[in-house]
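Anyone else keep sequences and C-alpha cells together like this?

Example one:
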Amino acid sequence: MLCTIDHETAYTYSERVRESYTVCHLQPISDATQYCTGFDLSIEPRVPIFSYRDRFGNEVHHFSYLPKHDVLSICARSSIVTARPSLPEPPGPVHREAVTADPLLPEFYDYLHESAYAAFGPALLDFAAWLGEPGEDLAAYFIRTGEAIHELFRYDRAATGVHTIVDEAVELRSGVCQDFAHVQVALARLHGIPARYVSGYIHTRSGDDVLGAEASHAWCEAYLPPYGWVGYDPTNARLIDDQFVKIAVGRDYRDVSPVRGVYKGASQGLLSVNVAVEALTTQ
C-alpha cells in the first residue's frame, strides 16, 4: 500500500515563552516491511533542523528556537510504501531453544529487561500468573497475551496519560494503545521473549472498525526466530498488516514519543495534534 501521512503538532502559549528545545520521532522507518519514499518536516517559526540516527535505528530530528514566541508549529509529511501482506499468517511454533540459541540475542539486551514504563511490578506479575506460563510455543503465548489484553482491557482515553506505567494500566484494566502495547511488551520480556514498543499509524479502509486510527498509534513486536520481529496490535487484536506504518521502535513510549521538548517561561502550553493518513494505492 502507498500512503501519505500528515502529522501536525501545534503549541499555543498564553504568554510568550523563550528557548524552546524540541526532539521529534516523526520520520517513518525504512526496513524490509516498508519504505519511506519521502519526508518533509517544517517548523514555524522557521528554524534550522538537525537529525541523527539513535541507538535503536530511528531517524530523530531536533531543533531549538531561542527568541520569545507564543506559537510553535511542527508539520511532518511522509510518503510510505508498505510491503506486508494484507492478511498475514500467524507465526508457527517457536520453542525457547530457538530464541536462546539465536546469534542476535545479545543485541536485544534492552528488549529483554524492564524499562521505565514497562516494569515488572506486582500488578503485572499477578496478571502474568493469571495468564499462565508460556508453555512450549512462545509465538502462541505472544499472540495469546495480545488477545487477552484486547478482551479484558477497556479502551478509554480518559483513564490514563502519556506517563502511565504498566502496573497502573493493569490495575485499571483500561487505557489506550500506548498502555496496551506496554503491557504486552512487559509480559513478553518477563518470560524471556525480546519485545519492543512500536510507534506509528494505522490506516482504516471503508467500513473498518479500528481503534487508534487517525492518530498516533502503538503496538508490540516480539523477536521470534526464524520469523524475526513479529508485530501484534493488542488494541485491535490483529497481526500487523499493510495498513500499519511504523515510525520508531524502542524500549517504551519514552524512547519514541512523537514530539517532546522544553521551554523557558511561566506560561502553560495548549497542545493540539492532527493526523491524516491517506491511502493512494493498495496492492
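And example two:
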Amino acid sequence: MVMLSGAILPLRRALGSPIAVIALLGRQDLPTNGVRDYCLQLSRAFARRGEHLDVAEMRWETQGWLRAVGQLWRESREWKGKWILFQYTSLMWSRRGFPLGALAVLGTLRMRGATVCMVFHDIRNDQAHGWKNRLRVTYQYQVMRRAYTWTARSVLTVPAKNVPWLPRNANRAIFIPVGSNFTETEPRNQNSGVRSASVLTVAVFGVTWGSQSCDESADISYVLRQAVSTVVSLRLVVMGRGAAEAEAALKKDLDGSGVALNVLGVLPPEQLVQQLAMADVLLCVRGHISTRRGSAIAGIACGLPIVGYRGEETAFPITEAGVLLADPGDRVGIAEALKHILCDAKFRDEMRQRSLVAEQKYFSWDAIAEQFLLALGNAAA
C-alpha cells in the first residue's frame, strides 16, 4: 500500500468529535484513472476548506491478494475510529468483474475498527447480454448490497431511487454527484479558447471500446451529417479514451460530409480543458447522461451546452445544466437538438450559462467536499 500524501490530520466539524479521513483505492486503471483523479481532487478541495484527506492505494494486482491484505492488516492498525472512503468499482477489486476481494478488504477494515464509507462509482448495468454477463451483474449487485449493510455510510453517485440493488429504507446512503477531473486553478470556459466565428466545433469526449464503438461512431456521424447542412462550417474534435480506436470508423462514416475531423486521443487535463474551451457544444452518445458520467461533467465544468441521450440515471442536478436530451437511440432527436444549439447563438449562450451555474452549485469540488464533510460529520455526531 502506498500513502500518497502526508500524515493523517484530524477533521473537525462544528458538531461531533474529531475524525480522520483516508480514501482507499484498489487496482490502478490505465491509461487514465478517473477514480484516482476523483480522490486527489477531493483531497485538494478538503485542503482548501482547512481539512485533510489522505489517499491510499492497495495494489493487489501487482502484490497478489495475500500479500496485499497482509500489508493492509499491518498498516491499518492505526486506523481505528478513522473514516475510510472505500472507493468501489467492480474492476477496481477484481480482474473479471467478480469483486469478492472488496468484501475481504471491507472485512479487514471492520476488524481494525475503522469507520467505512463506501463510495459507489459503479451503480447499475442494464446492458448485460448472455448468461455469463447476467451472472456477473447479479453477483456485483449482491456484493454492493452486502457492502452497504456492512458500512456506516454510503455515497451514491446517482440518486438512490435509481439504484436497483439498494435495500428499502436505505437511510445511510447519500447522493453526491461526481466532479470533473480538472483542478480549480485550470482555466474554464466562458469560451476562453481561440475560436473562429465561421467554424463551429462539436466535441466528443470518450468513445466506448469494442463492438459498441461502431454504434457510437454511426450515431456521431449521422448527427454531424445532419448538422452540417445547417451551418457554414463544422468541425468535430474527438478526445479521451477510445478516440484513437474510433478514428478509422469516423473517417469512413464522415467521408464526403464536409465535416472536418480532428482526433486527439487521451490528453493531459490542461490540454483537455483547452480543447473543450474552444468547442461550442459537447455531444454525448456514450450511454446516457448521468451524474456519474465524468465526460458530461467535464463539459458542464467548462460551461458547454450538452446534447445527449437520457436514461434511467438522468436526474437532478444534471438536468439543471445546459442539456438537450433525446430518448435512447433517437438519433433524429439528437440531430435536431444539436442543430438548435448550433444555429441559435443566443440560445447557445443561455445553455452555456446554465452549465456554468450548475457547475458552481452542484459539480464543483468545493461543493462536493462540503457535502462529504456534512455527511461524515453528521454520521459521527
